[in-house]
Structure formats: structure tokens, C-alpha cells
């Protein structure tokens, strides 16, 4: 596979950009020695600047349920861009997109648009504090909610010996530059364990504003909740007078039309969306019932932003939702079926080649991990039993065969409506080749 042009761009990029690009996740840390610079995307395909073609399963970290350059998105954006890109005023499309979301989500009365998941989560936490007058936030080990200081605790895999007792997990800051307040006000609990949460709420419930979580872990591979667990969390939050905040940045408009809340039959107090919602444009949202959302009225709890409700992004979001909802939500039926097939067949290939690769999924989100366990049920399993270097090697071998699996070892891969049966078959064949090569090398 040629990569001369990417190499040249990387050399130039290193002089003017940190790591040659704009996020550690996209640079040499995950794509050593240098990343492929992508020129173009269409459907489920990517092309890099050296003309290599890839089947894309990373899909902009889940931002593209319809794949790249979907004709309906291209049409609406081309039409609307002629009328201006951004006014920072109230917009008709803002009302229309919010109406659609409220219609789709029974737990939501009102929506506030933002730009990124991080911003939305920062706002969600501030709202919870403003509404309850309580200062602490309870999050879970291995759950990522963006890079806002207050939630940037215990989000990365660590040596199990550093995690502390499961009744009182050590809070591990994930960046330099955090203030002690970020740690003091952020409690960390073991996930997928109702007793652990009950213990924390019994002790600290009176000072906790909200329990925030992903409905399915998507930043430690893919880890589904145990049956009934999320309902128990919701009930406990109600019992201890703590707001239940479901961060649907990844799962929203992806795992089901109504996200994890629909899939697991939940009525969260606060929800946040991002990624899939914008279909490739930076659109995020904070949403919930009236009595919660009224907290940001007139800046009682402040949420501002010059770029909120980006005009073209909202046309893309509205069009994406309309496309996915067509024929009784056929878009979600399709991407979930592809996710299931990828999971089953990748697991079969792993068995056939004798590799200890296991694939877990929630609908269209799936991820291979190399592990001695039959199942990864939480962060501590992931930290203690997953060989990240092997996934790095596997994903590199896949990309060398023209199949773009994310190089980020703790994230996940995803399907979109543009993936075809031939894409799946070719990917499975590439996975077989990659695993056989890994077996030969040992
Ligand atoms: C669950 C979750 N919440 C929030 C975020 C932050 O979103 P963004 O990258 O748009 O800031 C992410 C990003 O990966 C996420 O996975």
C-alpha cells in the first residue's frame, strides 16, 4: 500500500500542527508511524491522498449513520449554503429539527442545540448542579463524556493494581492541568453493579446532583449493560433524589431511533446527544422534560455559544432523521442488522483461526478485543484482560487490506446504511487474513 503522499503531508504537518493533525487520537499514537491523510469519502468508502481505497467502519467516530456524502445530505447542504452559513439568530430549521426530536423521544419536551458532546455534557452537569443545589457528580469507571475537567476522571484503561477497591475506586485524573475541584466533586463508581451504586448513593446521595453514564459503554470497546441494570440505576436515582443523566452522545439516534433510552426503556432526567445527530456536522443537544430544561431559561443556568444551532448542520440533522425514519425506521433496522452480522461473523473467524479475539456489540456498534475472557462486563475486565497492542496490530493489518477499522484501541467500529453485503464479506475475508497472519507470527 502506497503512502508517500501521506508521509509528505505528515512531515509538513509536524511543522505546523501538534502530532501532524488535530487530535492525539488521529495521529501517530494510534496510526504509527504516521496516519493516512484522507482525501474523500462517499457512501461507506474512504480514499486517502495516495489513492488507497478503504471500507470505512470508523465513520468519523460514529458521526455518520448514513455514511459519507449521502445524496440527500449533499442536496440539502448545497441548496441551503447559498442562503448563508450561520446567522446566530433563531431559525426555522432549528424549530423543525427540535420538533422531530421531541416527536421521537417520549422523555423529551425540549431541546437546546449545541455543537459538541463535550459542551453538551458540561452543560448537563451544570444544569444538574443548578437544579439540585448539590455539587457532586457521580460517574462510572471507563465512561467517557468528553474532555471537560469535571468529567475527565477515570476514563482511560489503567493497570488493575491502580484502580483501588471496587467500593471506593481510586479517582484517576486523565490530564494534567485539572484543578483539585475536578476530583473532589467527581465521584467514581464501578458500572454494571447495582449494589456498588446503592452503596455510593447511601453514603453520598445527599451531595450528588446527578448520576451520569453512557447507556452502553462505548469508550472501552463495547460493553452492554446487564439486563435490568439501567432500570435499577434509574429507580435508585429517584429513591435518593439524584438526577439520572443519560449521556447519549454515542448511542443517541444510533442504537435505536430513541437511543439507549428506547432500547432499555428508560426515562432519564437529562440526556445529551452529539455524533450521529449531526450526520458529520458539529451538532449536539441537551434535552429533557420541561421542568429540567427550564433551568437554562434566560441563563439561570448558563448555556451560551456563538455557534449553537449551526444552520447547515441542522438541515443535515433533520434530513438524516427523515432518511433514517423512512419505511418504519428502516435505517436503524439496517445498521443494527449489519452490526449483528459483523459481530457474529468476526467471532466465527476468530474461532476458525484460533485467535482469542472476541467481538461485543450493541446494534450497529461493535468492537473486537483480544482477551482470555468469554465476556467483558466492565472496565476492570477491560483493564485486566484486554491486550490493546494486539488490537492495534489487527486494525493495522485490516487497513493495509483496505478496511478502515479504527486505530483507537479503546473505541469501537460502526456500521452505516451505505455498507453492502459485499463490504461485509470483504471485511470478514480481510479479518481472516489478518488473524491468520497474526497466528503465523505468534
Ligand atoms: C459518550 C460520550 N460523551 C461525550 C463525548 C464527547 O463528544 P465530542 O467528542 O463531540 O466532544 C464522547 C466522545 O467520544 C462520548 O463518547
TrEMBL record:
It comes from the Bacteria. PANTHER family: GLUTAMATE-1-SEMIALDEHYDE 2,1-AMINOMUTASE (PTHR43713), GLUTAMATE-1-SEMIALDEHYDE 2,1-AMINOMUTASE 1, CHLOROPLASTIC-RELATED (PTHR43713:SF3). This is Aspartate aminotransferase family protein. The lineage of its organism: Bacteria, Pseudomonadati, Pseudomonadota, Alphaproteobacteria, Rhodobacterales. CDD domains: OAT_like. InterPro entries: Aminotrans_3, PyrdxlP-dep_Trfase, PyrdxlP-dep_Trfase_major, PyrdxlP-dep_Trfase_small. Belongs to the class-III pyridoxal-phosphate-dependent aminotransferase family. One of its GO terms (molecular function) is transaminase activity. The keyword Ribosomal protein does not apply. It holds the Pfam family Aminotran_3. The keyword Transferase applies. Its cofactor is pyridoxal 5'-phosphate. Keywords: Aminotransferase, Pyridoxal phosphate, Transferase.
Amino acid at each position: 500500500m502506497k503512502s508517500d503522499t501521506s508521509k509528505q503531508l505528515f512531515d509538513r504537518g509536524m511543522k505546523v500542527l501538534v502530532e501532524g493533525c488535530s487530535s492525539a487520537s488521529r495521529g501517530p499514537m494510534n496510526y504509527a508511524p504516521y496516519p493516512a491523510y484522507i482525501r474523500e469519502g462517499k457512501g461507506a468508502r474512504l480514499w486517502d491522498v495516495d489513492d488507497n481505497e478503504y471500507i470505512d467502519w470508523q465513520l468519523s467516530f460514529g458521526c455518520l449513520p448514513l455514511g459519507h456524502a449521502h445524496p440527500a445530505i449533499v442536496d440539502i447542504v448545497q441548496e441551503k449554503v447559498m442562503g448563508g452559513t450561520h446567522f446566530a439568530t433563531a431559525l426555522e430549521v432549528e424549530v423543525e429539527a427540535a420538533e422531530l426530536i421531541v416527536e421521537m423521544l417520549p422523555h423529551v419536551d425540549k431541546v437546546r442545540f449545541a455543537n459538541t458532546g463535550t459542551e453538551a455534557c458540561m452543560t448537563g452537569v451544570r444544569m444538574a448542579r443548578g437544579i439540585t443545589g448539590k455539587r457532586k457528580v457521580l460517574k462510572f469507571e471507563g465512561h467517557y463524556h468528553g474532555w471537560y475537567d469535571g468529567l475527565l476522571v477515570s476514563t482511560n484503561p489503567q493497570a488493575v493494581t491502580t484502580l483501588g477497591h471496587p467500593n471506593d475506586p481510586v479517582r484517576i485524573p486523565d490530564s494534567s492541568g485539572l484543578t483539585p475541584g475536578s476530583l473532589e466533586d467527581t465521584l467514581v463508581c464501578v458500572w454494571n453493579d447495582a449494589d456498588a451504586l446503592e452503596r455510593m448513593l447511601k453514603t453520598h446521595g445527599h451531595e450528588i446532583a446527578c448520576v451520569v453514564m453512557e447507556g452502553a459503554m462505548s469508550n472501552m470497546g463495547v460493553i452492554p449493560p446487564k439486563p435490568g441494570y439501567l432500570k435499577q440505576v434509574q429507580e435508585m436515582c429517584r429513591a435518593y433524589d439524584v438526577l439520572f443523566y443519560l449521556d447519549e452522545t454515542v448511542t443517541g439516534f444510533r442504537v435505536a431511533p430513541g437511543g439507549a433510552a428506547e432500547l432499555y426503556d428508560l426515562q432519564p432526567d437529562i440526556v445529551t446527544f452529539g455524533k450521529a445527530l449531526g450526520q458529520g456536522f458539529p451538532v449536539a443537544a441537551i434535552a429533557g422534560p420541561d421542568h429540567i430544561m427550564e433551568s437554562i431559561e434566560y441563563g439561570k443556568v448558563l448555556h451560551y455559544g456563538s455557534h449553537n444551532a449551526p444552520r447547515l448542520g441542522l438541515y443535515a440533522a433533520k434530513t438524516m432523521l427523515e432518511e433514517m425514519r423512512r419505511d418504519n425506521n428502516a435505517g436503524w433496522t439496517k445498521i443494527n442488522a449489519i452490526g449483528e452480522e459483523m459481530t457474529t461473523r468476526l467471532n466465527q473467524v476468530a474461532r476458525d483461526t484460533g485467535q482469542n479475539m472476541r467481538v461485543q456489540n450493541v446494534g450497529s456498534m461493535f468492537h473486537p478485543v483480544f482477551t482470555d475472557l468469554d465476556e467483558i462486563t466492565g472496565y476492570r475486565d477491560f483493564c485486566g484482560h484486554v491486550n490493546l497492542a494486539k488490537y492495534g496490530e489487527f486494525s493495522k493489518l485490516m487497513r493495509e487490506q483496505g478496511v478502515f477499522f479504527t486505530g483507537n484501541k479503546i473505541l469501537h467500529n460502526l456500521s452505516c446504511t451505505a455498507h453492502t453485503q459485499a463490504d461485509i464479506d470483504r471485511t470478514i475475508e480481510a479479518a481472516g487474513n489478518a488473524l491468520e497472519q497474526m497466528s503465523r507470527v505468534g
